TrEMBL record:
<dbReference type="InterPro" id="IPR003359">
    <property type="entry name" value="PSI_Ycf4_assembly"/>
</dbReference>
<keyword id="KW-0150">Chloroplast</keyword>
<feature type="transmembrane region" description="Helical">
    <location>
        <begin position="21"/>
        <end position="44"/>
    </location>
</feature>
<keyword id="KW-0602">Photosynthesis</keyword>
<comment type="similarity">
    <text>Belongs to the Ycf4 family.</text>
</comment>
<dbReference type="GO" id="GO:0009522">
    <property type="term" value="C:photosystem I"/>
</dbReference>
<keyword id="KW-1133">Transmembrane helix</keyword>
<protein>
    <recommendedName>
        <fullName>Photosystem I assembly protein Ycf4</fullName>
    </recommendedName>
</protein>
<dbReference type="GO" id="GO:0015979">
    <property type="term" value="P:photosynthesis"/>
</dbReference>
<feature type="transmembrane region" description="Helical">
    <location>
        <begin position="64"/>
        <end position="88"/>
    </location>
</feature>
<keyword id="KW-0793">Thylakoid</keyword>
<dbReference type="Pfam" id="PF02392">
    <property type="entry name" value="Ycf4"/>
</dbReference>
<keyword id="KW-0812">Transmembrane</keyword>
<keyword id="KW-0934">Plastid</keyword>
<keyword id="KW-0472">Membrane</keyword>
<comment type="function">
    <text>Seems to be required for the assembly of the photosystem I complex.</text>
</comment>
<dbReference type="GO" id="GO:0009535">
    <property type="term" value="C:chloroplast thylakoid membrane"/>
</dbReference>
Length: 183
């Protein structure tokens, strides 16, 4: 929670700017650069860096495949780097009793719809709902229920919370909004 007083609550959302994304971007960039250097060293029949040993790798098919995977990893790391730079999914959830509105703000891809800024009147908030998603990466998700709209997820993606943490957060928010809580 970034900003808080008795009538306004603002929860910060980190979006794509998580330490795990920084880690995987650098690992992917380093690995793909290694694949490209070895692949091109095989093609040129010359070590591009003095510590590279390419002699046991033939250009066709191993070197060519390494170049392909190197480019694939390189472009994927560039994409991940751009999502970090643009801060995709980051923003905040603001609940303002004083001015009677709920505001959900997120950053998206560059372009006409980069800023996603949604305002909802206080009286349109119906409740808070907690959902458990089963699967390989099971997690609890907190939803804001708005009259006439789809439910809006409020929890951080990729940051799994225990049931106790999500229950505490949901009950505090439902109490602040003076709405029902569905578990």
């Amino acid at each position: 929670m970034q900003f808080r007083d008795s009538e306004i609550k603002r929860y910060s959302i980190s979006g794509a700017r998580r330490s795990s994304n920084f880690f995987w971007t650098f690992i992917l960039f380093g690995g793909s650069s290694g694949f490209l250097l070895i692949g091109f060293s095989c093609y040129l029949n010359k070590a591009l860096l003095p510590f590279l040993h390419y002699e046991n790798i033939q250009f066709f098919p191993q070197g060519l495949i390494m170049i392909f995977y190197g480019f694939l990893g390189f472009f994927l790391s560039i994409y991940l780097g751009l999502t970090l730079f643009w801060g995709l999914g980051s923003g905040f959830n603001e609940f303002n009793k004083r001015d009677a509105y709920v505001r959900i703000f997120r950053w998206g891809f560059p372009g006409k719809n980069r800023r996603m800024d949604f305002y909802y009147p206080w009286e349109d908030v119906l409740g808070i709902r907690v959902e458990f998603q089963k699967g390989l990466n099971s997690q609890y998700i907190l939803y804001l229920q708005i009259r006439g709209k789809k439910e809006i997820p409020l929890t951080h993606i990729g940051e799994p919370l225990t049931f106790e943490e999500i229950e505490k957060q949901a009950s505090a928010l439902a109490k602040f909004l003076q709405v029902s809580l569905a578990l």
